[in-house]
Amino acid sequence: MSVFSSKELEIGKFGNDEAQRKSQGFRWPGRPITRAAPVTRKFSTTHVRIEQSWLVGAFCILPFFFELRPKQSSNDSKPLTFAKMTETSSSPQSFEIISSLRFDPGLPDAACRHASSYPDPHKSPYYLLAYHQDRLIAAAAHFQWNGALAWLQQDLQSFEEFLDSSIADRSKAWRLRIVTPPVWRVYVDTESTIPSGFTTHKTTARDDYTAARLRAGINSPTDLAEVLVVNPNDEVMEGSITTPYFLRDHMWITPPLSSGGNAGTTRRYALSQGFCLEHTISRDELVDGELCWLSNGVRGFIRGQIITK
Fold this sequence. Notes:
There is one protein chain. The protein is α+β, with helices and mostly antiparallel strands. The protein has helices spanning 18-24, 110-113, 129-142, 146-152, 156-164, 197-200, 207-215, 265-272; strands spanning 2-3, 7-11, 39-43, 46-50, 54-60, 64-73, 76-79, 97-101, 176-178, 184-192, 225-230, 236-239, 243-248, 251-254, 277-278, 291-296, 300-307. It is globular.
């Protein structure tokens, strides 16, 4: 186990009060209740590598990130990359299945921590943990990683206990400061991306997304900017690191999975809560200056503005 240097990460303060949403207009689950709602926390990031029949790495505390990849054998700690795939020969020969989520003991509302569609709500400091587990299971099944699939299909409580073992100090005091939530710049990729299992599922094979970000002039992961990737039919698939939502006819819509984008956890949450509907969005529909929402499993929901010029 190694501990990296401390750094700061802006996170959102979540508000899910239904009465407040109705009285103040539509609010996403991650939209700040006040203008100064997002906070920045000082934290240490810990990297943990757990040796099992399948290698599992965990990165925490904020964001909490874990990955799956095959291991050569029980007596060889060096992981091997996965080569057997159902994709075409042009697919990456070395990749890992990943998911990123927020660990935050201060989540103020159980509705932010779990999906209400589950019959037994699992109150947890891991944001939408059940969705992340399902997402990893779906990816492992798609790529026929049977060892990983068997390990992932444990009950949710055991899964959380495994994640808990990666966090050295859950009682650490945080230093907070209030900041005004920024609006992200949202560009549209000038080239198309071909949908595949690597766009539907989150893996480390991200060359298409990296190329799209570079074409948009996004050179750092800390840039408050996003680029929308489009398929050969000029349909918006998703953002390079987020799910986008657009206001159309007084309703918020997000691209359907049939357009080729990622089955994100916050996307699933927004759909399950009735915050949005699925609908195809073409490149030509996007208007310069229009406001949109973006979401992912670490930052929650973020305001964005389309830039087409």
